[in-house]
Amino acid sequence: MGVWTVIAHYGDVYATREAVNAVLAGSERPETVLLVDNQGDLPAFDDEAVQVERPGDNIGFAGACVLGMRRALAAGADWVWFVNNDAEPGPECLERLLDAGAAAPRAGLLSPAIEHRDRAGFWYAGGDLDRRRLQVEHRARPERDTPHDVPFVTGCAWLARRAFIEQCGPLDAGLFMYFEDVDWSLRAQAAGWRTMLVPAARVAHDAAYAHGRRVFTPTAIYYMTRNRLLLARRWGSPGAVFAAAVTWGGRQLVKCRSAAAAAKVVLALSAGVRDGVAGRRGPARPGLARKLR
């Protein structure tokens, strides 16, 4: 089975190198690791299995994945494994994902269980999805120890089958980042493909917390708000999605510890709502992106 791993690089070069090293150290080694360098600062890698693609601009997580999967499928890959650059797969992660995929021919997307890197417990052990509101929740523990279907597969380290991609198409690059995993999960299920959790496959992942609560950057809040509203045109109930997005945004606002932080969150939410309702896709406008940093 030909497997390509695609890693979108943006941010910490060291984290990306660690992700690559973890992938290459696994019991099942992909034939190619393709790094899509959205930041343009990755050095060359010594391992001949590692290729670096530089699109020349930040095309977003979704765009990088689309570029990578097209390269992989053109090279004859049967599977494409997308790994976040801040994730560290366990030694047997890919092997166990592939075993589960071989045992379930209609599995289009398979995810490992994702543990917190710096604290106990799971960040993702399966996901629930309220389809009317497009609201996702990560389960705190797997439903059972064996591979099983879940309503939503997160995009942290998912494995995609070639036949599924060919039938359902690539990720929606216009979303740039966030909620592309919700859309792909729903497209898979609508076409009769299974979206599965493989609890024995494990990945460690970084996630930001403050005072015991999950926190998001203003940039993340913008894209999560906007893309949720964009997807309301395709899935869910637009009115219910709008209300849920605004409620979620209010919860992010009360987490702020300063007036300056609150102002950025308000900007992110208001811009996300405006652009989502207007149908704006792709990267945020340059002036807005600078203000959100």
Describe what this molecule looks like in 3D.
With 293 residues, this protein is α/β, with parallel strands linked by helices. It has 9 helices and 14 strands. The chain starts with a strand and ends with a helix. Helices cover 39% and strands 23% of the residues. The protein folds into 2 domains: 203 residues, Alpha-Beta Complex (Spore Coat Polysaccharide Biosynthesis Protein SpsA, Chain A); 84 residues, no CATH class. The protein is globular and about 50 Å long. The strands form 3 sheets. Strands 1, 2, 3, 4, 5, 6, 7, 10, 11 and 12 form a 10-stranded mixed β-sheet that branches. Strands 8-9 form a two-stranded antiparallel sheet. The protein has a two-stranded antiparallel ribbon with strand order 13-14.
Q: Share of helix among residues?
A: 25-40%
CATH topology of the largest domain: Spore Coat Polysaccharide Biosynthesis Protein SpsA, Chain A
Derived from helix and strand composition plus strand pairing, the structural class reads alpha/beta
Radius of gyration using CA atoms only: 18 Å
Q: How far is it from the N-terminal to the C-terminal residue, by CA?
A: 42 Å
Report strand %: 15-25%
Q: Stretches where pLDDT falls below 50 for ≥5 residues? A: none
